[in-house]
Amino acid sequence: MHQTDITDDHEFAGGDRCHGQSPIHAIIGETESSATVILSRTTGPFKIPVISHSATCECLSNRIDYPSFFRTIASDYHQSRALAYIVKYFGWSWVGAVNSDNDYGNNGMAIFLKTAQEVGICVEYSVKFYRTEPEKLQKVVETMKRSTTKVVVAFLSRVEMINLLEQLSIQNITGLQVIGVEAWTTAKSLITPNSFRVLGGSLGFAVRKINTEGFSDYVIKAFWDTAFPCSQTGGNSPQDNLNCSRYKDLLVLKNYNEDVPEQRYASNVYKAVYAVAHSLHTLLKCKEQEGCETSLTIQPQQVVEALKKVNFSVKFGDHVRFDSTGATVAQYEVVNWQQDSDGSIQFKPVGYYDASLHPDQRFVVNTKNIIWAGGQMEVNSNMLD
């Protein structure tokens, strides 16, 4: 790499090594794939490991471009192919497809389309838009409105799905059997007074729901006591009262934890933190009785190498290790948008996909538990070819 002038008196070569202890050993994030791509490219030259809990783009599996990237979630290579399998399973040979025009949507849809062709599924249309493109969104909605197929594979980020849902609701487009991805299938932000009319009966893949022991208690106790000390005392001085008054709208939520069960990515964050901890314990030669060697200097590249070798189980039972691309095994719940007797929308598990199992056992769906688009108990014959 050529040298770059920083000042008139100093030059730094790209290959120069920093001496001493690195202040950053790992970064956990980002949430979306495109942001994670940018972060990984930025940190790449410094060999700082990036561990994402939810960035699933297959593009991040490229170890040449992203040698320091890891994730506690599977690549979309598996989800995209599983989408084609679920469409084939239900006998839908004629579908539409829409995706987010970003790294996540474009890579995921490309794999789905290739797999669909392999298994004999015909795609009537394949359209895309990005959240900042309302004109393209209108064209997408028009295409969906004119289409003869009622089955739509929606490889969309949560924000694009919110945009699409809004337009489908405004234009009163219903009766679509939507097949979704983990980015939006269990997103609480999609639940609106009109959303079930459009998305009721949707099927899709979701990150498995795992109960992280103690997390619910932490949300309503330790978090508030640490972040908002006045939540207990109410403030003992004029200054405390002033600080507390800033948070009065938040403090009413202090005992709210009903959304904890749907925090599906929380367990992935948990695994990422522990993966870093296990790596550092190995590098610092930590032993249960003797403790760690505090005099050692650890560089980020050493953490990268240690992460490649982690192999442990967390207390809620999952095993954590990274494959050759830096990802974990593909395990999804198949969920169905259903409505309870009180009118509330529920994401009901109706099956699973587990890539760690034998090919004949990876995909299981309990069809008798599914509510289809329009509230049907059986697949609408109009949705077949």
Describe, in plain words, how this protein is organized in 3D:
This protein is α/β, with parallel strands linked by helices and 385 residues long. Helices cover 33% and strands 17% of the residues. It has 13 helices and 15 strands. The chain has helices at 33-43, 76-89, 103-119, 134-146, 158-170, 195-199, 215-220, 222-227, 230-233, 238-245, 248-251, 266-283, 300-307; strands spanning 4-5, 11-12, 27-28, 50-52, 69-71, 94-100, 122-129, 151-155, 177-180, 203-207, 312-313, 319-320, 331-339, 345-354, 363-365. Helix 2 (76-89) packs across helix 3 and helix 12 crosses helix 13. The longest helix has 18 residues, at 266-283. The radius of gyration is 24 Å and the shape is globular. Mean pLDDT is 88; it is low at 1-16.
Features:
385 residues; alpha/beta; Rossmann fold; eight-stranded mixed sheet; globular
Largest sheet: 8 strands, mixed
Distance between the termini: 58 Å
What is the overall silhouette?
A: globular
Would you count the extended β strands for me? 15
Separate helix tally: 13
Helicity range of the residues? 25-40%
CATH topology of the largest domain: Rossmann fold
SSE succession: EEEHEEHEHEHEHEHEHHHHHHHEEEEE
The level 1 CATH classification of the largest domain is Alpha Beta
Low-confidence stretches: 1-16
- What's the architecture of the largest domain, going by CATH? 3-Layer(aba) Sandwich
Per CATH, the superfamily of the largest domain is: Response regulator
Radius of gyration, CA atoms, in whole angstroms? 24 Å
Structural class based on helices, strands and sheet pairing: alpha/beta
How are the strands of the biggest sheet laid out side by side?
7-6-8-9-10-13-14-15
What is the subunit arrangement here?
A: single chain
